[in-house]
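Sync notes, pocket subgroup
Present: LS, DG
LS reminded everyone that the earlier model was apo-only. Rerun requested with carba-nicotinamide-adenine-dinucleotide included. Inputs:
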Amino acid sequence: MKEISVLKEWLNESRDIVFLGGAGVSTESGIPDFRSAEGLYSENIKQQYPPEEVLSYSFFLSQPEYFFEFYKAKMLFPDALPNMAHKKLAELEKQGKLKAVITQNIDNLHQKAGSNNVLELHGSVYRNYCLECGKKYHLDFMIASEGIPRCSCGGVVRPDVVMYEESLNQQILRDALTAISSAEMLIVGGTSLNVYPAAGLVNYYHGDKLVLINRSQTAFDRVANLIVSQNIGEVLEKAI
Ligand code: CNA
């Protein structure tokens, strides 16, 4: 396929590559995304509340039981394994060519695959803390908990993930901006580019090698230099 050969060529000639990804990077690991046909949003149309509402900070405060029921059932995949997309990106970092993985995912799969410089824009399900005393808890504690997870001090233990209505960690956002604005090549994959400010990061790239790898169209297709409309794991396996 012509697009894959171009991608391969650009990967060979670039030394400062940055990857920006989303939930589509992990669908080949069995974790549903939000906006695909088989994603969480379509599945939950029948449910009482839309997922954006359940995963918002005000909902977490007003209906914590429902929040945690949804969160534990739909957002935690402790047995998921990295797929070829995660593995090939880790390989590219080891070669010294990939400078950063910027991800909207909260599943830790890039780290499991061996990537070191991972900027988690939306946090991680593996980190949790008590809202009262700050005590930290592992994912296993959240999974084993019944109903609302409670700290030994009695406080509610929340995941260190960015809920709707919350702001992103400013240092991580700055690091992402710095990486993207100086990148020679930017690969954006497995994201619908619907969620801001993450999607807006693409606007800080000033080079001429913006590659979009996505199964469906995105709002940024017009500005891309190369579009590959296939599964990202398969694409990266062929190209790297
Ligand atoms: P999204 O809006 O669900 O978009 C995913 C995009 O990826 C869609 O455009 C799909 O067409 C595309 N896609 C799905 N599978 C593949 C594939 N194998 N190859 C290529 N393209 C594919 O998800 P975004 O990440 O854009 O939205 C941001 C939300 C989703 C963030 O806040 C995440 O935290 C949240 N999320 C994360 C996870 C996770 O950590 N794995 C899972 C579900 C949702």
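DG: The chain has a mean pLDDT of 96.
LS: Strands lie at 17-21, 98-103, 118-120, 123-130, 136-137, 157-161, 185-189, 210-213, 226-228.
Action: DG to write up.
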